[in-house]
Design brief:
Neuraminidase, single chain
Amino acid sequence: MIRSRLALSLAMLLFGAPALAQPVWPPPYAAIEVQSEHVGGVTIRAINADGMGAGTLSGPNLGFMWHRGRYRLLEGINPAFLAVADDINDWGWVVGYSADFSPANVPTLWMDGNPVSLGTLGGDTGEAHAINNLGHVVGWSKNGDDYARAFLWRDGEMIDLGTLGGRSSYGWGMNNLGQVVGHSFDPNLIGQRGFVWDNGVMIDLGTLPNGGECRASDINDLGQIVGYCQDADGNSLAILWEKGKMRSIHDARLGVLSFAQAINDRGQIVGYTSDGSLVTRAFIWDADSGMRNLQDLCPPNMAPRRWNPGDINEHGQIAVSAQRGDPFNGGRLVSLLVTPVNPTMIMAQPSPGIAGVENTLTVTNATPGATVRFYYSLRGGGTLIPGCASRVNALQLAKPIWIATATADGNGEASITRTVPRIARGQTILFQAVVQGECAISQLVVHQFD
């Protein structure tokens, strides 16, 4: 079954025998690690409807766009200083902030990769954090009195959105209807209050009963708002505001704290939970399934940990920042594109499933006459299928190794037979098949050989 005894032997020596822990099966997502030739960490903050991501390389401090495995670097107003990309719209326009020649950070818009300063509200610094498909931008800027104020930039003009009575406010998200969300300080400057700004009016979103601070982070085109609020015990809980009401979507089984980061027009919410330490876990929430650990919905034996989602698009694709290795001992930030998969072929378990003898892998429900490629890996994750958009399908294997190819017969069945080396006894191997020209995949098969 395995193409080469040597390949499997080397893989076992390098990686050892991974432990299998997979609460949800079959996993509905692939998790594609965004690779970079740069030394520093990679953080994807946003993703648009085409699966194009935007984020920042922390080594050279450069913003970037990422699409189908390729990078495009985004230099700042002053190329000698940092540039941070924070959001991207469906046209591929990116916003964030970069240093000008002061060198203070100014809200920045990249159109076709070229940086444009959006100016400020009279102060010397600011940041842009969201852009809609009309090219309108929100963020915050210092004003002439040196206070941060939420702004809306449209038609070349930066508008001060005001406050809830305090001195400062910050804009974090907006939708295609021009509604803006963020947080402001109350008149007593005691704490943060979430707001929605709509047609010139800033509205206080309120608090949980006997609760404390709140912050709104995103809004979809249905007017649903997400963020987090403190409860009566001071714990931050993920919140959904809709139709004028707020409710906690927190699930205590996933952590003590939770923070909602983004929502799409399907009502899917992503964010992270925490037990109060440095350990964070990504979640996805919807009205039918509630809050679920995102890693539980991805393939087993993945290397990155400490997931923190930044965005979700209309296809349900999620931009995730994660940690590879120990952050205190050479670990680094990586990013994942977590994308839904749609298996249409059915792969059976290896037969007879015993190491040291010939085994057969069989796929059914393939297109008759299609060329079916069989792969294996020791780790789950994700890999782009050449010629296929990530929103259509992806393999759920990390660094897949090709085994063999077979042609599907008139009944849509294809099979290969290979000898599995004895060294595979007791090892867990992941298998998947693909018809590349159709962007069709089988479900993931995980097998421990006797």
